[in-house]
Structure formats: C-alpha cells, structure tokens
Amino acid sequence: MHYVTVPGYTGSGPDHWQTHLENTYAGFSRVVQDDWATVDRDRWVARLDETVRSIDGEVFLIGHSCGSVTIAQWAATHGDSRVVGALLVAPADVEAADTLPAISPQAPLPAVALPLKTHLVVSDNDPFLSLERALALAETWGSTVETVPGGGHLATRDGYGPWSHAATLIERHTGHALVPTQGRTSLV
Fold first, then answer.
1. What is the pLDDT of residue 188?
2. Spatial distance between the Cα atoms of 92 and 63, rounded to a whole number of angstroms
3. Which tens digits make up the pLDDT trace of 103-125?
4. What gap in Å lies between CA 154 and CA 165, rounded to an integer?
5. What's the average model confidence in pLDDT over 144-164?
6. What are the residue ranges spanned by the domains of the chain?
7. How are strands ordered across the β-sheet holding 83-89?
C-alpha cells in the first residue's frame, strides 16, 4: 500500500500533520504542485493524476483543505481502480460566497457520488467550510463523516501538527498497519 498526501492552498509546512505522517511512516509520498499559492483546478487534478499513475500497486489518498477538493475532483473525473480510498480532511468550500479569492478558481465542487470510499473529517467551527455544508458534501459524495468539535480548519495553526488520529483513520480505512520509518516509533 502506498499513501499519497495531497496538500491544499499554500502547501503543508514542516509542522503540518501531513508532513508529520510523511516523516513518521514508510510508504508515503506527496503530490507537489508547481505553485502552492495559485490554486488551478485543472493543473492540480492533472498533477494528482500523474502522481497516482506513477505508483505501482494500491494507493490511499490523504487530502487537506483544497487538497481534499482536488482528490474529490480527480475521483469524479479520472479515478483509478488502484486507489482504494481517501481521507478528506477539512475540504474547503471553494464555492462559498465568502471564500478566499485565491481558492475560488478551484470551483465547482463535484455534485456526484465519488467512485471510491471516502471519509470526511470536518470541524464544527471551520472558517472555510460550515458544518451544514460539510454534511451535505458527505451525503452527495457518499462519504462517511466525523466531526471534530472545535477543530477549526484542522491545520497547524489550529494545533494539528502531530495528529495521531490521522494515522488511526488511515489504518482503519485501509485495513493496513502503518510502518514507522527507521528511527521513528510513532506519531505523537
């Protein structure tokens, strides 16, 4: 099993939970966009597609914010049977009237059931996705969903650097135990 993190707008810095996963466990790689500050729907989806196609074997995707949106858009338009599922954390509502102008070019969000198993992790106080909208997306996409009370955008500034629950969710949804990289024992 190979695990691919898909960061969102501005990328995931050195203290972000996606980076901690990559540095703690074996079998992880990251989708790298040409420009993290310019969200370009078609380019971001194409880069994810290139990344998935470059990997042999089963793949599990782990997105955050606009990266979660990229995964949903890719799944709705491309897909690959080797992708066994995805963890979509705090997808940004790129269609909201008050969304950041920098991420609005990523609209529209898919309005169809996604052809792979997805699990949304959302917060009840995310400034980029209301809980009502999150639950509606989960229903539309056919995703399971869990709500983190007071989690904000589930980003570094919200206290989500090392986040052991992400590893737990990945293991639960893939049925595979994550293997620590040499010299590391666990994600704290």
1. 40
2. 11
3. 999 999 999 999 999 999 999 99
4. 12
5. 96
6. 2-174
7. 28-30, 2-6, 59-64, 83-89, 118-123, 144-148
The mean predicted confidence, pLDDT, of the chain is 95
Q: Which residue has the tokens 């539309």?
A: 140
Is residue 183 over pLDDT 60?
Answer: no
CATH of 2-174, one of 3.40.50.880, 1.20.1510.10, 3.40.50.1820, 2.30.30.90: 3.40.50.1820
Q: Assess contact for 139 and 109: CB atoms under 8 A.
A: no
Looking up tokens 């810095």 gives 13
112-116, 144-148, 181-185 — which is least confidently predicted? 181-185
Q: Rounded to whole angstroms, how far apart are CA atoms 173 and 84?
A: 9
What tens digit of pLDDT does each residue of 60-80 get?
A: 999 999 999 999 999 999 988
**SS3 (DSSP) at 3:** strand
| Contact partners, residue 37, CB within 8 Å, separation at least 6 | 9, 10, 102
DSSP character at residue 104: G
